Amino acid sequence: MLATSQLNASEEESESESKAGTGSLPFEPPLNLDRKSLVAVKICEHGPKGGASEDRVEMSLKRELEIMQSIHHPSLVDLKAFSIEPTRAILVLSYCPGGDLFDVATRHRELLSASLLRRIFAEVVGAVRYLHERHIVHRDIKLENVLVNLTPNELADRSIDWQTYPYSVTILTDLGLSRRVADDEKLTTRCGSEDYAAPEVIMGLQYDGRATDAWSLGVLLYALLESRLPFDPPPGMSDALRMRSRTSHRIARAEWQWIKYAGDDTDHDGDEKKFEAAGLLGAMEVTEGLLQRARSRWSLEKVAEKEWVSGGIAVEGGMRFREEMEGEII
């Protein structure tokens, strides 16, 4: 849902006062929100009408809100205001006119030039590392949870140097499954999308949330490169074999392959030649480093050190929030 902020002062104060007593969490009015700027409104139903345990949902919302209030990064969701009511929660978030990365990767695949793909992945890695540095794991990284700040027409502008473009191109959102963790804490809850779940999660083992976030980033990068998910049945697989080889089994074995970028000679050198020709050799290396079992998987620190990632953003003074482009106060 979209909304436009255009309340006058008295209406805004009245709205704040009327909602403050409707739930256990008070309404938080936007402090610097332009009164005529578009925002996204997320409504979460809970309680008797919402169909979920009110206490459980409220606890989850408290955690999500606490985390969102504690972060401030150009490529992370920005909570502008919220209200908790008896049967629903209302979150006012940044509006991203380009939809999500799944839409871009499926409907506008031709827009993902090598330089834009590199920039997008570098931004998402930076956002996830920012969370990890604050002992927060996301646990639901996927194309649908990466929003795009630019419209397809803007993404198609070939005059833009994506390496030096000053504003964030993407926003990592949906922190509903995120949580804080201690340095060596292992998690057990199986959550998020199975297509992006790491082998250790699929097998019901204890897992390091940072390492499973890294795996999900590998799935995301593969999907951007190949326009398919890595553990979907390979083209040409018979129906009988599809029935015997479930997605979860392939994930547990970390069994995947390049399709679009597979070399003609079926060896790895052939893969490299295709990636090199497309200007994406670094992307191949990072994907292969991330889509490994936990003991061999690259950390995000190692990923960030790779030139293909570290050189993806070169903005003097640091990347800026999209709203700054429109003169809004952040």
From TrEMBL:
<dbReference type="InterPro" id="IPR000719">
    <property type="entry name" value="Prot_kinase_dom"/>
</dbReference>
<dbReference type="GO" id="GO:0005524">
    <property type="term" value="F:ATP binding"/>
</dbReference>
<dbReference type="Pfam" id="PF00069">
    <property type="entry name" value="Pkinase"/>
</dbReference>
<feature type="domain" description="Protein kinase">
    <location>
        <begin position="1"/>
        <end position="309"/>
    </location>
</feature>
<protein>
    <recommendedName>
        <fullName>Protein kinase domain-containing protein</fullName>
    </recommendedName>
</protein>
<keyword id="KW-0547">Nucleotide-binding</keyword>
<dbReference type="InterPro" id="IPR008271">
    <property type="entry name" value="Ser/Thr_kinase_AS"/>
</dbReference>
<dbReference type="InterPro" id="IPR011009">
    <property type="entry name" value="Kinase-like_dom_sf"/>
</dbReference>
<keyword id="KW-0067">ATP-binding</keyword>
<dbReference type="GO" id="GO:0005737">
    <property type="term" value="C:cytoplasm"/>
</dbReference>
<dbReference type="GO" id="GO:0035556">
    <property type="term" value="P:intracellular signal transduction"/>
</dbReference>
<dbReference type="GO" id="GO:0004674">
    <property type="term" value="F:protein serine/threonine kinase activity"/>
</dbReference>
<feature type="region of interest" description="Disordered">
    <location>
        <begin position="1"/>
        <end position="31"/>
    </location>
</feature>
